[in-house]
Structure formats: C-alpha cells, structure tokens
Design goal:
74 residues, mainly alpha
Length: 74
C-alpha cells in the first residue's frame, strides 16, 4: 500500500465514488501554513481534515463549511 492507494482510499473510492487527492503536502508548520493560505484565499478542496478549533472557527466565520446532514442521511 502507498499513501495515495491504501485500504482507506479504496473504501472511499468504492463507497463514495470519490478519488482522494492530497491538496496539501508537508508536515507541521508547513502543512498548517498551506491550510491557512487556502482558507484565506477561499480555494479549498472539496473535503479536508481540520486539525484545530482555530481552523474550524476560521472556516465557519468565512462561510466555507457545508452542512452535509442531508447527504449523510441518504
């Protein structure tokens, strides 16, 4: 298995029909800086991991979060 092709990515592709592509690369502060830049520019991937309350708060304040309740309940 690789980072791009593993049990998790295959399940997501099979169950959701979605192909995971890494929008951010790097670790630690480099990764955090890339995410902050994407949030401030409003150019975000369709899905992403949110690592902190601060990131989540900024996403909500900038109306960059979608309510997926209806989709999830399907």
């Amino acid at each position: 298995d690789t980072y791009e092709d593993n049990a998790y990515t295959r399940i997501v592709e099979e169950k959701l029909g979605a192909k995971i592509e890494n929008a951010f690369e790097g670790e630690g502060e480099d990764y955090t800086r890339q995410v902050a830049l994407a949030i401030s520019s409003g150019e975000l991937p369709d899905m992403m991991r949110v690592d902190s309350r601060e990131e989540l708060k900024e996403l909500v304040e900038n109306d960059l979060i979608a309510d997926l309740t209806d989709v999830y309940n399907e």
